[in-house]
Amino acid sequence: MQHKGTVSLLILLDWIFSSVSWFSFYYFRKVSVEQVPFEVSEAFYAGLTIIPFLWLLLYYLLGTYHDVKRLYRIKILHLTFQATLLGSLCIFFTFLLDDQISEYHQYYNLMLFLFFNHFICLILPRLLFVTVLVSRIHSGRGAFATVLIGGSDKAVEIYNEITQLQKGIHRFVGFVNINGVDRQLEQKLTYLGHVKNLEKILREQEIEEVIIALESTEHDKLRSIISRIEGGNIRIKILPDMYDILSGSVKMNNIFGVVLIDVNPEVMPVWQQAIKRFLDVILSFVAIIVLLPVYLILAIAVRISSPGPVFFLQERVGLNGRTFRIIKFRTMYVDAENQGPQLSSANDPRITGIGRFMRKSRLDEFPQFVNVIIGDMSLVGPRPERQFYIDQIVPIEPQFLQLTRVRPGITSWGQVKYGYAENVDQMLQRMKYDLLYLKNQTLALDFKIMLYTVLIVIKAKGK
């Protein structure tokens, strides 16, 4: 069962049984509460079309379809209860509160039947679905493609411990060594290569999980490896020391599993991620429409300021290292980088007169609403950089790669706090704020950053 097919099957099951639950509720409402003969009406067809779709939207916002392959029975029970309670309340107060009833207690009957009917209709097929899914994983047919990083006795020990489990979830593809190749491990696993080629190995082998067989006290090596993987769809697990266990860092969902630390739990809940993307698109459309007169004025100002195009397009590194062309109003003279890539400074002679004002007020960034709509960027996120500078930064601070694991933004915490960077050292200073953002992402923080950005635009005091 492939991942996309698994998600599609769960969505199909949810749609079918959400329709069944609405049909049975509609029948109960008409026959038992309103005490009228059941008949197929336009209202019935409208509900059968709209209500299941709204349920699917709610399941999506709550993260049911986010990582289907990693669902387990307790989690699906929790997700189903949470969605049913929230959805039932919304349907009741939106569609049912104005029903004509003879006695007040019938409202309670409607609400209780709506909740329990939907919960029972959904939980039974969902539990069956997850049970089959988990059984496939434990049998090895759907196990997670896993690579082991390390070549020491610790790597051999963790491999033996995992493979001896009765209910395993890992299908080891091979191992990647950090120093020398351990002959004992090579007898058990396929040698895939050195850690310097890690990204290529993970991509070619379609790896789903990585287990790093180093002590968590080896911070430098761990940090370097994790920063190259973290943020994508690959789960990272490391060995805990006693401090990690006592401090509560070790999170386990499977009681049969090996004691490992799951490195990349998501900070922003899935429902907030969905709302964030929705707001990105809607607000960007609104901004483009509202700001059309501003675009026109700025375009004329750029054209008058110096010969050349109105817009400046430049290749930047975005989500998961994918390159895209960022759109800005041109603030420099044409051929400003004929000597190669150069960062701008406060008194940079390459910047035009109007360009200096636009950079201070961030007006040059306004065309990037188009980048947001097409999916290259977000309203809030780390500022995208060029590969030329990323290649200089990563050897100094590998954690910089974590900033490419999310959509880059028109504005960011680092941009608000620090502004434009004039050299690599300032990029590293700004990176600290953006890393803080990654570890503390919430919609509330996004709104706060956008508010401060608006103030910078109004006051034209950006760096």
Walk me through what this model shows.
- This protein is α/β, with parallel strands linked by helices and 463 residues long.
- The chain is built from 17 helices and 10 strands.
- The chain has helices at residues 3-33, 42-61, 73-96, 105-139, 153-163, 183-186, 198-204, 219-229, 242-246, 270-290, 292-305, 353-361, 369-373, 387-393, 413-417, 424-439, 443-459; strands spanning 144-149, 170-177, 191-194, 209-215, 235-239, 261-262, 311-317, 323-329, 378-380, 409-411.
- A hairpin with a 5-residue loop joins β7 (311-317) and β8.
- The two termini are 52 Å apart.
SSE succession: HHHHEHEHEHEHEHEHHEEHHEHEHHH
Inertia-based shape: flat
Terminus-to-terminus distance: 52 Å
**Average pLDDT, all residues:** 82
- Count structural domains: 3
Provide the helix percentage. Answer: 40-55%
Number of strands: 10
For the biggest β-sheet, the strand order reads 3-2-1-4-5-6
Proportion of beta-strand residues: 5-15%
Please mark out the parts with pLDDT under 50 across 5 or more consecutive residues, or reply none. none
Radius of gyration: 27 Å
The largest sheet is: 6 strands, mixed
Task: Provide a count of the helices.
Answer: 17
Structural class: alpha/beta
